[in-house]
Amino acid sequence: VALQRGRSDLTLTYTLRDGRYTASPEDNFTDGHFNLRFDQKFAKTQSISISADQQTAHEARGTGISEGQNGIGIDEPLEVQRDKVIVTHKYGQSDGVLRLENTLAYNSIDYAAFPELTDEREYSQLSFNNVTKYRLGARTAVSLGGSLSEIDYRLDPTPVAGDLDSLDSSTKTLLAGFERDVGRSSLGRIGFGAIDRTFTDEDRESTSSAYWDAEFVWKPRSYSSVSMGLGRKFLESRGIGDFIDSREHKIAWAHAWAKRLSTQVNAQYTQDNYIGGGRQDQRVDLGLRVAYKFNSRLSIIGGGRYHELQSDGTDLDFKRNVIFIESNIRL
Fold first, then answer.
1. pTM of the model
2. pLDDT tens digits for 162-172?
């Protein structure tokens, strides 16, 4: 549902996703995603947007918190509710000399079952992010960005000297970037900076290290694009250690063969280091999607996904192949 009046836009969206496995019906799931978004333009150079999300999702068995031996006794996907509110203020035009973007976000994660396993991993997060971009010319821009994030876990054990208690933490990042538009067919962006994570529990080791993010997009045709990217980020742990130092490398090719027929091929390699947990994972993800659009309301998508995990943890290595077909229906 969309309403528009002058420079104001209000959009209400609900997405229902239902998955059925022929080989393992116990992995069937039904997810729901509700989004309310409001956009207000005050002038050509200034706007604000507010987005509120409530998502009832799932973690597939053997992934996330239920990896390895933690999954023993779990006979269904873990239901998880993710709530998020984002407020974004933008100043400046996309092709202007100066552009500022400030974002304030709040999100929380709550699990619906298996409290003995999930309670200690439920948390809320409040974050602020700023990006300032300055154009040096028609095709070149530099940027400087910074962020501050505060994470509060629901369970706050009584502090005991020498013990690893609370996982509450704050994370700060600083990133300087360079962007170059090589022409109509390609765009490159690269950023380097620093990231720091500090725990309220003095017994947990704080971390400061280099931070990077890069992306290159090549469009040989208007209907075809190749994108490559790499980056480093800190993620919340999936049940072991303090947090995850994740480094990813990815490539994707999207191509429209006809007005109704398109494909997408992607590959990604990820290395996850569990800080404070003594574990390292290597993940490989491959994917193929073929989409046929009957009209603006109905499309059919088929394809396959391959996922491989190699870990030095116990009972974690696995390979998974999924062949799927799905339909997207818009009312």
1. 0.85
2. 677 788 999 99
